[in-house]
Amino acid sequence: MNTFFDTNVIIGYIYSMDPLNSASKKALIKENVNYFSFHVKQEVNIVARRKNREYHKFLQKIADLINNVDDSSLIDFSKIHRAINKFQAIGELDVDDMHSAIDVIWDKLDFDENTDAFRVKSNFSNYCHNFHQVHRNCKNRCFKKMECIPAYRQKDKSVLAKIDKKSLRGEDCLHGEDEEILFDVHDYLKNNHDLDLLFVSGDKRFVKAISILIDVLAFTRFIYLDDLVKN
């Protein structure tokens, strides 16, 4: 199967703490021919830089909590969660995301509900130190395993006309880089008619926009990420 993945699916695959991680890992099947595009790569790099900054600040706040515990004591995981309840959002990383993130980290590092403080400090410090490199490597490996669709040459007037007619630009439909990504795929498939491509996004708004535009697009198959992995 030939599958095109939107930015959010690739970001979900890269970051184990991302809410889309589990679904993205199921979707990116190595036996398939998986595609991204020029504008997807651009947006992934931008989003990754933002997420790295946000996670760095969050991890530092957790490190401060951990380092305040005596080495001979135990780290009570429930106290970490209670402390997170008092945190402010860090950019787009809200408190719910922080709770989910620390659960993933705790599980990954094989910590218990009550864990030796010295062990937690040492292993958590190593995790933080390697965080950026690990995720940068994952991003690079992901792109290397996929095929890249080049940037569109020009936007199809018929698609533009329908976007305008249906007022699809805005936060409730096409937003950010969505339109650029859409035209990458549309323009490429106009010149590669034999490529049957399934467009996958974890953004319901983008999927909604595609469903409205589908009669003027050069591809006919699209699906919301959660619906893909349920099948």
Q: Could you characterize the architecture of this molecule?
A:
The chain has ten helices and seven strands. With 231 residues, it is of the alpha/beta class. The chain has a five-stranded parallel sheet. The chain has a two-stranded antiparallel sheet with strand order 3-4. Strand 6, helix 9 (204-213) and strand 7 form a beta-alpha-beta unit. Helix 1 (7-14) packs across helix 2, helix 1 runs parallel beside helix 3 (38-67) and helix 1 (7-14) runs antiparallel to helix 6 (117-144). The model has no long low-confidence stretch (mean pLDDT 95).
Low-pLDDT regions: none
Provide the β-strand percentage band: 5-15%
Biggest sheet features: 5 strands, parallel
Percent helix? 55-70%
- Number of discrete helical segments: 10
- The best one-word shape is elongated
Structural class: alpha/beta
Care to count the β-strands? 7
Radius of gyration: 21 Å
Average pLDDT number: 95
Q: Strands across the major sheet, in which order?
A: 5-2-1-6-7
What are the secondary-structure elements, in order, as H or E?
EHHEHEHHEHEHHEHEH
